Amino acid sequence: MKLLFLIVLMYMFDQHKGNRLSNNPRPFEDIKREISDYSEVAKKIINLAVYGKAQNRSYERLALFVDTIGPRLSGSKSLELAIQYMYKALKNDGLENVHLEQVKIPHWERGEESAVMVEPRNHSLAILGLGGSVATPPEGITAEVLVVTSFDELHQRAQEAQGKIVVYNQRYVNYGETVLYRGRGALEAAKVGAKAALIKSITPFSINSPHTGIQSYAVGVPKIPAACISLEDAELIARMSSWGSKVVVTLKMGAKTYPDADSFNTVAEIVGSKYPEQVVLVSGHLDSWDVGQGAMDDGGGAFISWEALSLIKDLGLRPKRTLRLVLWTGEEQGGIGAEQYYKLHKMNISNFDVVMESDEGTFMPSGLAFTGSDEARGIMKEIMKLLKPINITQLFGNGEGTDISYWMKAGVPGASLNDDITKYFWFHHSQGDTMTVQNPMEMNLCAAVWTVVSYVVADMEEKLPV
Ligand SMILES: [Zn+2]
């Protein structure tokens, strides 16, 4: 009986193997050889991007763009101008199928805002209201503060929170973990009867600079105003209150939410020569917060993605599959433009080979983060070896990007740029996100990685296995 079971099992295994072989009949050695044949093309791309004529181009294009347009908040006039600017720029660059795809995005404006400590001494606080926050009454909210270091502490001291302004002085662990205080700070404070929430900015470093970002309310819980304050002010208030001082703050916010606005995802292509319906997507988001210039988040990612298409065009290359650039809109409000793009295009999901997004800075790159099957990972590892001339060959786990997450959740392989993010959150969503934090040589290297990978995946004989 056991033997029979074993025979059946072996038969099934054999069948399974056969199926796999018929889907992917080529031995891995063959695929490896195919990839290593791209080493000359990879060198050409690297030379053009890093040492040749295209050197510093993505940086210079980005500077002209952000210096001309400025920050690009969802629903704002300047985001509209940015999209028109890019439409023209991509056309002038000679790219194909340049077009705009209409979507609806949130429209919130911060208006006038201020916060002043009125007790125990007069001190003006640096604040940035959070995206989607409600306003205070015109005369503001004046209340004593309750300082907490965690949601747990807030819940333990729920009785004390009634009628107060809750100040979160949480410790920064990492962005992913600590950002919960920005996202849910007002909601949790409102549940225990607070009048407003002031949250220590989500950053490990500060020169009295508040950082904004999106936050959310919940049905059935009162909406209270929410803003981020600087590390320095959060710690000042915490120290004063630990000495037993009564700290009173007057918060004024003129924020307003308008009906959703018309906007667009901006698209350009190099149409594939053999499988034009199949797509390798490279992307970054065009919108930003309303402070700084949005040069880092995500101007850099958007412009190295454009650069990938420019470099391939300049070298006279045309991959077998279509290389598609998408500049997303409404990302900062929660990937709103990308979600509508996914809904519109998901019926063609089997044609999407890989989706790529760069949205964590374009600092010194170390490689690529990738989400996909083990087989696909093996192929990507080989492709990364083509970047040996600039020594940026690492393949990490977990490709990331709000805008490409819809596709990755549905099983499409996804990749994001891995770079040195040591300083990323110093500037993120703050007045400090300007061209001054960008570096042309680092952008050249990022563009080279982005271009080699997207070109080779788009040109290989077969799509990445899922
Ligand atoms: Zn971003």
Describe this structure in words.
By secondary structure, this protein is α/β, with parallel strands linked by helices. The chain has 2 domains: 29-107 and 259-459, Aminopeptidase (3-Layer(aba) Sandwich); 111-254, 3-Layer(bba) Sandwich (Glucose Oxidase, domain 1). It has 15 helices and 16 strands. Strands 1-10-12-11-13-16-14-15 form an 8-stranded mixed sheet. Strands 3-2-9-5-6-7-8-4 form an 8-stranded mixed sheet, with helices on both faces. Mean pLDDT is 95; it is low at 1-22. Zinc ion (ZN) is lined by residues 285, 297-298, 331, 359. Zinc ion binds next to helix 10.
Number of domains: 2
The hetero compounds bound to this protein are: zinc ion
The largest sheet, given as strand count, sense and whether it forms a barrel, is: 8 strands, mixed
Strand order of the largest sheet: 1-10-12-11-13-16-14-15
Whole-angstrom Rg = 25 Å
Low-confidence spans: 1-22
CATH class of the largest domain: Alpha Beta
Q: Helical amount among residues, as a percent range?
A: 25-40%
- Which fold name fills CATH's third level, the topology of the largest domain? Aminopeptidase
The H-level CATH homologous superfamily of the largest domain, spelled out, is Zn peptidases
Percent of sequence in beta strands: 15-25%
Q: Tell me, rounded to a whole number, the average pLDDT.
A: 95
Signal peptide: 1-18
GO molecular function, one term: metal ion binding
Family: Belongs to the peptidase M28 family.
InterPro entries: CPQ (IPR039866), Peptidase_M28 (IPR007484)
